[in-house]
Every structure is written in structure tokens, then in C-alpha cells.
């Protein structure tokens, strides 16, 4: 009896070697120019992160330039907040007897200033503020006072002949007692009843600039 010699070869599978994750390597900034495909993503991220701030900066710069252009182009804006005498120089000051005749003082700030016997004859004072100022004996004849603020101001014995006060403010304890208002235009000036009554007793003349009768602008009966 012959014996069969059978050899069986069994292959045991081997486990694959462990592979560690590769470390994340950041591109070397010095080598980026040599490998443009490797830093394109970084460039896109950088552009995206800086695009919005750059747009805001450009917008702000444009608005600032536009504001500056308008400021110097419009004479009325050029004198806002202090006029040709500098910011706040004429506010809260003793300017007794000061000569401002014929000057352009648009939106000039004279708040709380002492302006006794000051000369504003023929001055352009559109939107100027005389809030709580003392104008006793001042000369405002022929002055352009449209939109000026005389709230709480002392306007006694003031020469307002032929002055244009259209739209001026005269609220509070503003007093025009003893003032010359011949030819003055008080169109749309809010006045206390007692002040309107007093001014109507002395109102006379026609404003040479507007052609309006002083009595009519005061709504005198």
C-alpha cells in the first residue's frame, strides 16, 4: 500500500505596515514664487479677506474728497462754524465797537457775545447766530440777516433800517425796544405779541431789496 505525501501550503496574510499621517506642510514663503500652483489658494484667501476693507477705505476717501470739494466751492459752507475769524473766535467774546461793516459773515457764530455799538452795516449775515448776545446800539442797517438767530438777544436801540430779516428767529425774551426799523423786512419772523404790537407802532418804509412794506411784513393791522 503506497502512501500519498501531500504537502499543503497555507499562506497567512500579513498585516500592512502602519502608515502614519503625513504632516501638513505649509508652503515656504520664499519658495512660493517658484511654485505658483501651490500658493494660488493662499492668494485667493488673502484677496478675499482684504477686498472688503479696501472697498470701505476707497469709499471713505471718496466721500472725504467730495466733502472737501463742496466745502471750498460753496462760500456759505466756508464760513460755517466761525467764519473768517476762525472757529469760535467771535463766540462769547467782548466785541464792543468792533467794525464788521460790509463783511461776509455767513453763519458766523456770535453766541453770547457783547456786541454793543458794533458796526454791521451792509454785512452779509445769513444764518448768523446772535443767540443771547448783547447788540445794544449796534448798527445792522442794510445788513442781510436772513435766517439769523436773535433768540434771547438784546436788540435794543439797534439800527435795523433797510435790513432784511426774512426767516430770522426772535424767540424768548428778544427785545427790539428803541430800535430803528424803517424799511426793515420782518417776513416770517416769529415775534411775541407784545413785540409785534410795539414794532407796529413805529413801523415805516419799504425794504429796498425785497420791495416789501415793513408794516406788511409785521402783519400790522
From TrEMBL:
One cellular component term from this protein's GO annotations in UniProt: chloroplast thylakoid
Xref: Gene3D superfamilies: E3 ubiquitin-protein ligase SopA
Transmembrane stretches, start-end: none
Pfam families in the record: Pentapeptide
InterPro entries the record matches: 5peptide_repeat, At2g44920-like
Name recorded for this polypeptide: Thylakoid lumenal 15 kDa protein 1, chloroplastic
Organism expressing this protein natively: Turnera subulata
